[in-house]
Amino acid sequence: MEPTEQTTQPELQPEQTVQSVQPVQPERIATRTLISDNVSKRISVLRFPLIVLIVLGHNTLSRANAVRIGVEFQTSLLVDYLQLIFTTCLANCAVPLFFLFAAYLQAKKNYSYPVLLKKKARGLLIPYVLWLSMATIFVVSRLSFPVSDLKIADWATLYLGHAEWFNPTVIPLADNTMSSIQFWFIRDLMILVLLSPIFVWLIKKFPAAVLVLSVIAYMLPFEFRIVDNQAVFFLLGLYFGLYDFPFFEKIDRINWLESIVLLIVTCIAVRKTGGVLLNNFMVIAGCIFLLKLTGLIVANEKACKVLSYLSGFSFFLYAIHLPILSAVVMILWVHFFPMKNVFLCVFEYFGAALLISAIGTGIGIGLKKICRPAFALLTGGRI
Q1: pTM for this model (two decimals)
Q2: Percent of the chain at pLDDT above 70?
Q3: Checking CA distances to 180, which of 24, 254, 262, 350 falls within 20 to 30 Å?
Q4: CA angle 255, 261, 262 (to 5 degrees)
């Protein structure tokens, strides 16, 4: 989930330029770092909504969760389909798109490898360590035994995840995963940046093969182990950037009816039959829908201005919404608005996520005004 350097994802906000990039033939690799004003705006306006979708995705209604926190829960077909569309589909589009944008902008900016590593150390590594350290303090403070009992494997899991590698011994840790689970994306992104010179060489040497294998690797239940299989979108982003592929223009050629029908059909298919292949088709349909939506947003000057401003706080919201903020808001929410009927379930689903987003963004805005250096440090210079 960087206004100046960043994904995902808080990752990169493009540098705006006054000169537009003219499309070139796919065979010709782009050697200039210019990013068209239209592409810059369309990436920028999507960043904050994608983070809100991530927050929504982490506010997942389920009977198991309701029972665990001792509240009533009433589900229905409406609730199930809302979750399917917004959580299973659209929220799961955020990570692929952040990988795509991060790699695309990296390729277009074309920094030397030492400069790239220096920028990413500031923009990704420092915030990663700081936020996970704060989350780790919170997790460790809740343990019922001395901190000295923690082994190296436990600390490694808290900061890196991958419990299957380290075999941690701390039982209370939820799913034996990292202390702030959303940072798996930043972890994987840093790995991909380190390996990016190899990817660039492969794309230049075997462009067709890399493109085909990337699609196959994503559509099939293939595990890379080191990074999530959604990382193939990082390869696609590098490909689009190196060959100056106008992906927004291609997406715009799909009309709205086709995009909406594709989204609905794939959602229904996943609901009825499931499966990795159909689920990934659905995510691609969701990505197409969201990328097309940016065209409408950019055309609206007021909406574009607001979302461009909020994009500067997208990383902060991404970082702060878990583990504490979301937990506190959701517990208090169901205390005052118990999910006794379908309306209250839907109200919690959207309302709690929007409240978490508003509080997290508000804290970021306040911190930036009160102590700009602290905000810059926590967001990797994203000011």
Answers
A1: 0.86
A2: 84
A3: 350
A4: 90
